[in-house]
Amino acid sequence: MTVDQISSVAGRRGSTQAAGRSGTRPPTSIATRRHRAFYLFASPWIAGFVLLTIAPMAYALWLSFTTFDGISPRWHYVGFGNYRELFADSQTWHSLGRTGLFAITSVPLSIVAGLGLAVLVNRPIKARGLFRTLLYLPAVVPPVGAGIAFKQVFDQNSGAANGVLNLFGIDALGWLADPYARYVLIMTVLWTAGNIMIISLAGLQDVPRELLEAARIDGASAWRSFRSVTVPLLSPVLLFQTVTGVIASVQTIMPLLLAPDPTPAGITALPQSNHLYMMHVFAEYFAFGRYGYASALLWVLFVLILVVTGLIFRATSGVVFYNVDPEAKK
Amino acid sequence: MRTQAGAPLSRRRFLALSAAGAATGAASLSGCAMQVSNGVSGPGETVTVMATAEDLSPELIKQAQKDIGVKIRTVLFSTSKLIAMMTNGNPPDLVRGIGAVDAPYYAARGVMEDLDPYFAKSSVLRVDDLDPVNDLWRYDGRSQGKGPRYGMAKDFSQDSMFWYNTALFDQAGVDYPPELEPVTYEEWLDTAKRLTRRRKGQTTVFGGSYNGVSTIDMLAGLTVSAGGSLFTDDFSRVDFTSPEARKALGWYIEYCRTKVGPSIVQPDPNAWDGPTFQANRLAMSNSGYWLGGLINADKKLAPLARLAPAPVFQGGKRISPCQAGTGFWIPSKSHNKDAAWRVFEWFFGEAPAKARASGGWGIPTLKSLRPLMPAQESYQKRVLKVQEAELKHYSVIAFTPYATADSLLGLFNQIAPAAMNGEMSVDILARRLNSAMNDQLKRGKEQVG
């Protein structure tokens, strides 16, 4: 029996005895105090979670069964009407398709870019700290500022990007319109690859040197060592980046920040290629005032993210290598 | 179940207590949200005004306290915040709105206070002194422009007019438009094409912009100018396939397709004409008198810029509506209507109104304040002459109460780019717009009843 168990039993006995003596306050056991302390410290988070996550989600779920528009007096319950409508809405499917394409393109690209940068700045080069800082810097820039900068740089008539093209005798492109707008959007993701670089760098520094040295002694090339030693050991990090990257790309509001007119109605003027699922949701809420329908769209997205995350975990269960100390399981 | 002192807290009990705590917290938060003062107007009252930073500067708020003894608390304008506050039962006491499109929408939903009794008693805002533009804030339960007054415009412009830069006309060797007579829309577009300058795929000078304040309101105006009406008599449907609406739509799509000016297929990164016009890169700007506020402050640009009447369609009707009429209204559930009205009177009829009238950022909405409009310089006198002549052609173009302008514009933005890029005919576009917008209007009508 451990000390905790002994004190817990003693505490219970004490409580029972004390309860029999009227007018006396029962002694408090160590276990009870620990319980209280745990719940005391956890309660701000739980209260926040209930107030700011569960309650709004429940409210959105309720709204998703109504025609609520915020102002009109005759909104009413429509059951699964909004859900039936969204599955028949071509905008939903088109925006979902574009979002899927965006996730499939941007997530691998940003992971490869981040990992590549991490490998570069993990090498013993001069001014390594400076390079690490510079490469991470864009990730620190607020997205709103980044959106404004990208809009200025890629403006067709006065932007620097077309200035460079003109220097080479190439005619200016409408970067912020179809079909180029999607490439600018992907560039905004790659621009913040410093985030992924930092996490990958931490992973790389965790790779045991003896394994790499053993591979080198066995005659493995640098590429082979990277592929067969480093990548497997980094696989949990890469899985984490994939899952969070997919969730972030599905929920991205970057197209909104690239919009020339980021108002509710202005969002609807986005180039079609950047009209992703969240833009559809945003437009339904704030341009069309269809709070019920937009809430249904969000709930479908929530379920979809859960399913996609589950599928990613299942698909990678055989290839992700967890370097766990076998003794720790005992 | 009674709680035994000293007993360990079970998870179930803890979660129950958490939920109760959260509910209490939510109620407290709700109670804390935007508390407004109650009672009648008097010194020391606080009025919550939902406005933009430009509407009410900190200096103006201080001035209100000094002039009328009312403390103004501002909430930054946001439709979603307004909805949240109204749902919560604590609406602001004064709310910014665009008379041309917001008044029928909110009035039909019964959330605006009828201000007729207040106007009847006011010595500051006399009904006979109100400019006709304030009729945008009237709604009789069926149509805009008649019935009780629900708000008032702070200033206005006739938004189909346009400014032009004489230097850019001279450079291109193009004649100026007549001073007091309107050009046709066809001529305007032809002139814009001649003024446009392009180099290596970039537009160095835009011939002209023509997007209105809100594209849908502008298209409704263009349709009236062509001799028709975009909305049916009961405002429950649009018809873009009528010959007049088709003509208006075709003209606007041609404007976008030729890319002589900014549009959703060639967006201006500034999202408005001011900086481009000021940089001598826009020869004609579809803006009303209000742009004079910017132009007058630029000593180089002011002598070069001139105001021109709203164009007409060939053989069509000369009209010159206001597409905004931005002002304020009092929610019917405001807890402090009397104090709100005091601020309303002060803002629309006293010192702030006089300051706005002399600033040149719009035409005053009280006829008695018109003498304060800037007319010191020769270019200001020229602009004033054009503007005064244009006022004779003002009329209210009623907007539907069944949808917001944003929702109709949103549908237009989603459907029209294909036609602007030449991938869809105007006839197909007209049919698709009818289908999408009439669905939205139908939903709105069901909600209003």
Automatic annotation (TrEMBL), chain A:
Membrane topology: Multi-pass membrane protein
Family under the similarity heading: Belongs to the binding-protein-dependent transport system permease family.
Entry keywords, A to Z: Cell membrane, Membrane, Transmembrane, Transmembrane helix, Transport
Protein name as catalogued: Sugar ABC transporter permease
Lineage of the organism: Bacteria, Bacillati, Actinomycetota, Actinomycetes, Kitasatosporales
Organism, as annotated: Streptomyces cylindrosporus
Region (Disordered) location: 1-29
Domain ABC transmembrane type-1: 96-312
Transmembrane segments: 38-62, 100-121, 133-150, 183-204, 233-254, 291-313
Pfam families: BPD_transp_1 (PF00528)
Compartment list: Cell membrane
Classification via SUPFAM superfamilies: MetI-like (SSF161098)
Automatic annotation (TrEMBL), chain B:
Signal peptide positions on this chain: 1-22
InterPro entries named in the record: Bact_solute-bd_prot1, SBP, TAT_signal, TAT_signal_bac_arc
Keywords tagged on the record: Signal
Source superkingdom: Bacteria
NCBIfam families the UniProt entry points to: TAT_signal_seq (TIGR01409)
Protein name (database record): Extracellular solute-binding protein
Organism (species): Streptomyces cylindrosporus
Taxonomic lineage of the native organism: Bacteria, Bacillati, Actinomycetota, Actinomycetes, Kitasatosporales
